[in-house]
Amino acid sequence: MARLGIGLQLYTLRDDMEKDMEGTLRYVAELGYEGVEFAGYYGMPAEKLKQLLDELGLKAIGSHVSLASLTDNLQGEIDYLKTLGAQYIICPYVMPEQRETSEQWEEIISRCEGFAAEAKKQGLQFLYHNHDFEFHLKIKDEFVFDAMYANTGDKAINVEMDVCWVQFAGQDPLAYIAKYAGRLPLVHFKDFSKDEEGKIITLELGLGQVDLKMVIEAAEKAGAEWLVVEQDHCQKPPLTSVANSLNWVKENYTGVRQ
């Protein structure tokens, strides 16, 4: 089994990125993260960002791109990622008003299959990143989550599985990782607990309910390429939280680059 790369979803550091993108990326590299997944480029031209990443030794894994931008500017998004040398273009979220019915989901899946086919033509992979709501509705007796990945071939949407949200939805992330072996290049590596109302609280790695060590083992067996650390909302300064989470990885994953 190949070792997993350790990346960071920069949405965790969105406020720091907006204030000082270059300084934030330098900090991420100094911590020891090997790659980054973007959630916006904060006005930096692709060529300049590529030069910075090369200087820092950071791999551009891919980027979360809104459904609106995928629809309105797919070629521009693909061109930017190709300049960075990234491989993955990822739909991260579907707005509530767009996902109220199975018919709406069928239309979204069809659109995403079109994005996937075009991305494949141009040497990229199109992935979909889940939350919990893909397990709240079914299409023809299967969860929307599974319907999203039902097609194979040129129109195949591949998987960026957020294990935190899978578990929060009441499903088994280990079983789902195994189910999508070979189609799961990226695993969002995230921990959580619940508040008194049952709402999610995302935590630094090792402080919550996810069996992260078993996730690592399952991800390796499934042929995943990257564990992508993410924390939606941090209880400490986000720069501290991403450092603490990486320290957990270093202490608990023998494959990590020291």
TrEMBL record:
Keyword Isomerase: yes
Record keywords, A-Z: Isomerase
Classification via Gene3D superfamilies: Divalent-metal-dependent TIM barrel enzymes
Taxonomy, superkingdom: Bacteria
Domain Xylose isomerase-like TIM barrel: 25-251
GO molecular function, a single term: isomerase activity
SUPFAM superfamilies on file: Xylose isomerase-like
PANTHER family listed in its UniProt record: HYDROXYPYRUVATE ISOMERASE, INOSOSE DEHYDRATASE
Name the record gives this protein: Sugar phosphate isomerase/epimerase
